[in-house]
Amino acid sequence: MHVVLLEPEIPPNTGNVARLCAATRSTLHLIEPFGFQLTDRDLKRAGMDYWQHVIWQRWPSWTAFRESLPAGAKLWFIESDGPSNYIEATFDRDDYLVFGRETKGLPSLLLEQNRDAWLNIPMQNPEARSLNLSNCVAIVLFEALRQTGFGGATTPGVRPAAGGGQ
């Protein structure tokens, strides 16, 4: 599975997504410009010691990323107001899950051009503005992994975080 962050702005969110990608063996694609430096202390802290396990690629632009994709690559665009719920999508192992900037989301033109692949995550409270980016990635990624058999995961369950916590 591939996770794509288009112009991420907040270092801890990107670090958390990197950690998630390491744990799930998903490839992370980071598309510039970023709202931070890749050397940012908060980015590194959020990813902790997982960065060495992340398969990731840095792209200078959406165009460069898009031109690199193999023929037939399936991209899913996750953004509020999408015409379909993410749970209704049928994912394949090599799909790309595309998420936008924390403050502005994905560009409306990109969404309109890909309306059949524009997915939303439903929220129960209309007064809640949005969900955290890294939470959105986790929600959709785990549904995609569930549908595809978790890619041969070898460790059942979730281990508690270091330091306990129940």
CATH topology: the name is Alpha/beta knot
Structural class: alpha/beta
| Assigned CATH architecture | 3-Layer(aba) Sandwich
Strand-residue fraction?
15-25%
Helix percent reads 25-40%
- Tell me the strand order in the biggest sheet: 3-2-1-6-4-7-5
Count the DSSP helices: 5
CATH superfamily annotation: SPOUT methyltransferase, trefoil knot domain
CATH class term: Alpha Beta
Please write the string of helix (H) and strand (E) elements. EHEHEHEEEHEH
- Mean model confidence by pLDDT: 88
- The radius of gyration over CA amounts to 16 Å
Report the principal-axis shape. globular
Number of strands: 7
Number of domains as seen in the coordinates:
1
Question: Main beta sheet: strand number and arrangement?
Answer: 7 strands, parallel
Low-pLDDT ranges: 158-166
Instruction: State the distance separating the first and last CA atoms.
Output: 29 Å
Structure description:
This protein has 166 residues and is an alpha/beta fold. It has a single domain (2-152), classed as SPOUT methyltransferase, trefoil knot domain (Alpha/beta knot, 3-Layer(aba) Sandwich), CATH 3.40.1280. It contains five helices and seven strands, in the order βαβαβαβββαβα. The chain has helices at 11-24, 41-47, 62-68, 108-113, 133-147, and strands at 2-6, 27-31, 55-59, 75-78, 84-85, 96-99, 118-120. The chain has a seven-stranded parallel β-sheet with strand order 3-2-1-6-4-7-5. α1 links the parallel β1 (2-6) and β2 (27-31). The longest helix has 15 residues, at 133-147. The model is unreliable at 158-166 (pLDDT under 50).
